[in-house]
């Protein structure tokens, strides 16, 4: 409970989800009972170790390489669908963020009042996007935004749940014919999850209008609709019995009404279920639910044309936690276990989610002008943590630099020659390194190439200087050829750029 | 002075440095006297407009395109020099950041105490890098880090000075032979500023040891050395007379000592000046200064081999504001005026800076183990604001998306055909868009291509469907050819990918 213990507790998060060596001056005090959790480290430390704040972590070069690949896949998909990039500040006026996230508002990081405006860190990219649209009077845009967001949540870092994490958002704003942009968002989720090859997945779909209609016919008062969605959203983390008792207890709903809800939320399927519910005597009488179901039918028609209904399930238990959704909502979950290290690995949870929010932009417009929006957010952190586990398990060695050639000298007193040659290569656009020593041993220079995966060595000695050549060595084959100095850059390019 | 006015004042920052249309409900209340400053806007507004916090701004798609190009140039230079990427959290433990930035510590954004750790937003990328090295016991790395940092400074946004801004840092950590990595940092500044073609520049170089030696022989007490550097650093913003009176007044130094300093800080030159100062009877007697001058000589030898001394000036007035520098320091400034819009445009100031900080890592290590470091930070925001001005002036139209083909239909009732075709193209990796309408007019679809720069249109009508072809239209030439449907993706690729 006390602050200090928690602080040391986190030393081991370096290297997502793995236990690095604890600081030598600390000792392991207690191994926690929850399986998969990390041991608690504690003093006596000479001074508090300086580590990243709870729920955040550094990214090492190998992680950055993996993250770069992942984000590259996401960005190229967003660009394939014609999106433009925007960026917004990490902090926003506090007032602007409030009352947009329901129960979750308490998770917003606030900045200290140091004189001036009251600020907070963004909780997601959707509310800033809506603010951006309203402020600039934009009524029509397809944009993506990849940036970090901040939540004072309880971190579960082995499962990729952090307090600072990337969101990768794609949104379509504008007044269009129903369900066409909505279907594209699902296509995007399908494309990205397929390309990333992280195993089998399922995209659950529902509609806030169907949920609200369902709640209404079950006898839930209208004032409780928003909170019902937040509570229902917990179904993926706790069993129905617990959700039920929260609804009856905390939320004060009648057990009968909640039990009627309980029957509906078990339903999931495809076009057949949509047709069935459109025939449901009670649900089809509700205007909201009927609209939602008809749009859901249209959505499934479009998804059929996209050829992706095999991985999409209309699921009445899907609610999504956030307040601002007004229409279709969706969430992608991974189906397979990712590894065999015990309970912790089962169910990495949602890896993408989103929906339609037609009212949010209007909240920021002085005249309340609405701009209909639909979007999707890719949960890159959870995917990252799965791929990182997999990479570590495969012991695949990742290159963290792209250096093409090492500039080396075989004798002493040749630093000037090395500096001059490497400078020529840099100016020719070649990625080149050299050792920061006056007289390094040739063996050390070659060893550095082996260690870091540099494929070529440009060796310049007395002989080569005299002849105006450079000895180009292939690190893998150990083959060496003399190349006229003025052709060196072209030769390196020829060998490495296919 | 009151909060509200300041708030509205900032509405016009949308579009860096330009005045967009103020909110229609606001009126211009006062035009400030300082030339180039933005007019103060004020009420009566229906409600406070939701805008980004003071000193921060959104990036629009065209700005993101420009920023992407800029960062691309910087990253490829860093990679050309063999650097690996790392990332650290935007927030750090408050305690970790304190006492690293001298007088500037008051500019650190602190987070509210919401229970848990006391946090603050990073002020630069250097201190988190040092923390990262110490925590992970890394003694040897060449890394780059591109991320936003936060300073509660008075913003001057037309000149690219913000409270949230990118830093692009390249650093070399490790124990090496003198001045080799230091010279590479200057080479990097030279490469990046040359490639970006932002006009003529000068890299000023000095050494903290030379400065300290100079202060000592001028009779400045040792306890004032650090604060002298902060004050001297203001020389690029105010004339010597003002700096002098701050030294004498606020800092309480003797006028005679300050005047002796005043003579030295006028000196700048190249190898000749280094040789001259090495002969200076007083300066060469000071151990620190002598070490610094000898290393400076070595540095200039290496820079000569790199062929970049033409743009490097050894300048005794250069001090750099930050506490942590221990050796060579440098700063690049643009020499030319960027445009002719008045005073504001003169001197965009420093566009890159850095130096050696051999003691910083030791401050985070429980045993005080030092890791020598040298690095450089590229001031991308100022360069961005210059290039953005230039782009606006040239009225060059920037494409903000990369869409290759528009999928269009010439008749009604063909939404399904469009959806099916675009889905095939996406799956083949083609960047494709369509209008989100059931039955858009062909003209509208073609107009969209003109507006957004999409080069090709894939038209699918009744006829094409029947024949199993797609009509591929070149937007520029208006030429149309029928392509067998199964060859469409390959044909688009052939036409656009050289």
Q: Can you describe what's shown?
A:
2 copies of one chain form a homodimer. Helix content of chain A is 36%, strand content 18%. In chain A, helix 8 runs antiparallel to helix 9. A 9-stranded mixed sheet of chain A has the order 3-6-7-13-12-11-8-10-9. Residues 1-47 and 341-346 of chain A have low confidence and may be disordered. Chain A has 498 residues and is α+β, with helices and mostly antiparallel strands. Chains A and B meet through helix 1, helix 2, strand 3, strand 4 and helix 4 of A and helix 1, helix 2, strand 3, strand 4 and helix 4 of B. Chains A, B: InterPro entries: aa-tRNA-synth_II, aa-tRNA-synth_II/BPL/LPL, Anticodon-bd, Anticodon-bd_dom_sf, His-tRNA-ligase, HisRS-like_core, HisRS/HisZ, HisRS_anticodon.
Topology:
Two copies of one chain form a homodimer.
Chain A: H1 3-9, E1 27-30, E2 40-42, H2 61-80, E3 84-85, E4 91-93, H3 94-97, E5 119-121, H4 126-135, E6 141-150, E7 164-173, H5 180-196, E8 201-207, H6 208-218, H7 225-232, H8 240-248, H9 255-264, E9 268-269, H10 271-279, H11 287-306, E10 312-315, E11 328-334, E12 350-356, E13 373-378, H12 380-394, E14 405-408, H13 415-427, E15 432-433, H14 442-452, E16 456-459, H15 462-467, E17 469-474, E18 480-484, H16 488-496
Parallel strand pairs in A: 3-6, 8-10, 14-15, 14-16
Antiparallel strand pairs in A: 1-2, 4-5, 6-7, 7-13, 8-11, 9-10, 11-12, 12-13, 16-17, 17-18
Short description:
The structure is a homodimer of 498-residue chains. The first copy, chain A, is α+β, with helices and mostly antiparallel strands and 498 residues long. The first copy, chain A, contains 16 helices and 18 strands.
């Amino acid at each position: 409970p006390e602050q200090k213990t928690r602080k040391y507790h986190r030393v081991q998060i370096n290297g997502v989800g793995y236990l690095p060596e604890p600081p030598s001056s600390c000792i392991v005090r207690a191994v926690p009972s929850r399986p998969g959790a990390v041991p608690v480290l504690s003093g006596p430390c000479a001074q508090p170790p300086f580590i990243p704040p709870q729920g955040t972590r550094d990214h090492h070069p190998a992680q950055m390489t993996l993250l770069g690949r992942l984000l590259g896949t996401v960005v190229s998909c967003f660009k394939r669908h014609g999106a433009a990039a925007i960026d917004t500040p990490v902090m926003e006026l506090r007032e602007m963020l409030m009352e947009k996230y329901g129960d979750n508002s308490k998770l917003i990081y606030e900045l200290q009042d140091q004189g001036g405006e009251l600020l907070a860190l963004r909780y997601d990219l959707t509310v800033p996007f809506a603010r951006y649209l309203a402020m600039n009077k934009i009524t029509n845009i397809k944009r993506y935004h990849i940036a970090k967001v901040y939540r004072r949540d309880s971190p579960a870092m082995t499962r990729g749940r952090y307090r600072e994490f990337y969101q990768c958002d794609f949104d379509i704003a504008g007044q269009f014919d129903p369900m066409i942009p909505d279907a594209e968002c699902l296509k995007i989720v399908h494309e990205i999850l397929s390309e990333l090859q992280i195993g089998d997945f399922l995209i659950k779909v529902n509609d806030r209008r169907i949920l609200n209609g369902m709640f209404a016919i079950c006898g839930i008062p209208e004032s409780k609709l928003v909170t019902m969605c937040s509570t229902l959203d917990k179904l993926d983390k706790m069993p129905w019995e617990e959700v039920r008792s929260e609804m009856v207890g905390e939320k004060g709903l009648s057990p009968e009404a909640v039990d009627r809800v309980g029957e509906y939320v078990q339903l999931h399927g495809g076009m057949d279920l949509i047709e069935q519910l459109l025939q449901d005597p009670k649900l089809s009488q509700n205007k909201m639910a009927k609209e939602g179901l008809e749009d859901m039918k249209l959505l499934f028609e479009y998804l059929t044309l996209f050829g992706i209904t095999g991985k999409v399930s209309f699921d009445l238990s899907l609610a999504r936690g956030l307040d601002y959704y007004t229409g279709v909502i969706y969430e992608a979950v991974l189906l397979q276990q990712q590894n065999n290290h015990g309970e912790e690995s089962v169910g990495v949870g949602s890896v993408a989610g989103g929906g339609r929010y037609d009212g949010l932009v209007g909240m920021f417009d002085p005249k309340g002008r609405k701009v209909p929006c639909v979007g999707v957010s890719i949960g890159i952190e959870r995917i990252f943590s799965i791929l990182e586990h997999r990479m570590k398990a495969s012991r695949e060695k990742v290159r963290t630099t792209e250096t093409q050639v090492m500039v080396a000298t075989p004798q002493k007193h040749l630093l000037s020659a090395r500096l001059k040659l490497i400078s020529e290569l840099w100016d020719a656009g070649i990625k080149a390194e050299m050792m920061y020593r006056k007289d390094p041993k040739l063996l050390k220079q070659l060893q550095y190439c082996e260690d870091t995966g540099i494929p070529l060595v440009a060796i310049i000695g007395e002989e080569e200087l005299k002849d105006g050549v450079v000895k180009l060595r292939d690190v893998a084959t150990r083959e060496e050829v003399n190349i006229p100095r003025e052709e060196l850059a072209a030769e390196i390019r020829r060998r490495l750029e296919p």
